[in-house]
Specification:
Blueprint (H helix, E strand, L loop, with lengths): L2 H5 L5 H10 L1 H21 L4 E9 L7 H4 L2 H10 L9 H8 L2 H11 L2 H4 L4 E2 L4 E2 L8 H11 L1 E5 L6 E7 L2 H38 L5 H23 L5 E5 L14 H32 L1
Antiparallel strand pairs: 1-5, 1-6, 2-3, 4-5
Length: 291
């Protein structure tokens, strides 16, 4: 067997086994080092836990009311951009849940910056280590959105899952439930503001018309908006109806690090690295013999 044969892919199976046997301890050492690193990393890595809220959309809107109104009243509703439906659509509720505005306000209210950036925070002094490296809410939003909060929707069942992955088990459950409550509160406020704006517009138009039929239709719209306002005030689960709230995960149920998977990957990588190192040593030795 020569270096030229190896370089041109002419190595036989017997040659391959010969190299492996000759440098078996190199393969063993590389494998043990990789597995050992994986074990140490698993032992000292921060445990991350998952807390989930399972929910369904709580919207009760009937849809299409404005399109079924005839004549001047339909045009009036369309021009004023009046929403006659109660509730919040699923898409709107999910968008609010993942929105930058709600997330940044949540981070600010819950004082999450020190938790999201522990390396920059001095817990003993209760201040940032370097005043010039204070993280912004925008950076915190991106980090929270990428590695802490996850929203999944099951197309078959319609269930929506909000998952919080964090090192503190209690905070993970607390944040998940608090985020859903905040979305419900925000959508209630938006619905109430929209209904009140529409009411002001309808009352203003009511004083400008003497047509009995049009006035009667407007009274019906006003009644509908009053009902929407009352619904927004009394229904806590306005956007999402919680099926299964988040609970504090058990101590041993962490989702990261995945020790078994990590060690398995390290084992395979170590063997491959050992084989590569064995053939590199072989090629270097053959090159020296031929030179």
């Amino acid at each position: 067997m020569t270096t030229e044969r190896v370089a041109h892919g002419e190595m036989t199976l017997i040659d391959f086994i010969h190299v492996l046997r000759r440098h078996k301890w190199s393969i063993v050492v590389c494998t043990l080092l990789c597995v050992g690193f994986a074990v140490v990393h698993s032992a000292f890595a921060t445990r991350l836990y998952s807390a989930k809220v399972i929910m369904v959309p709580a919207q009760t809107g009937k849809g299409g009311i404005a399109g079924r109104l005839g004549g001047n009243l339909g045009a009036l509703v369309g021009l004023a951009n009046i929403d006659l439906d109660s509730g919040t659509s699923k898409e709107q509720a999910i968008a609010i849940l993942k929105s930058r505005r709600l997330t940044e306000q949540f981070i600010k209210d819950e004082n999450l910056l020190p938790a999201l950036y522990p390396d920059l925070w001095d817990g003993d002094k209760g201040q940032w280590k370097d005043p010039e490296e204070v993280p912004t809410l925008g950076a915190a939003f991106r980090k929270f959105d990428r590695s802490v909060r996850f929203v999944q929707e099951d197309a078959e069942t319609g269930l929506i899952a909000l998952e919080i992955i964090w090192s503190d088990r209690e905070k993970a459950a607390q944040w998940a439930n608090a985020l859903v409550a905040r979305v419900n509160q925000r959508t209630r406020e938006l619905a109430q503001e929209e209904a009140e704006r529409s009411l002001r517009y309808l009352n203003e138009q009511l004083t400008r018309t003497d047509l009995i039929e049009l006035r009667q239709a407007m009274y019906g719209l006003i009644e509908q908006h009053v009902k929407n306002i009352m619904l927004a005030k009394v229904r806590d689960e306005y956007a999402f109806k919680v099926i299964d709230p988040a609970v504090v995960p058990e101590p041993g149920t962490y989702v990261s690090p995945r020790s078994t998977l990590l060690i398995g990957i390290a084992l395979v990588f170590g063997v491959l690295l050992g084989i590569a190192w064995a053939f590199l040593r072989y090629l270097i030795a053959r090159s020296r013999e031929l030179s």
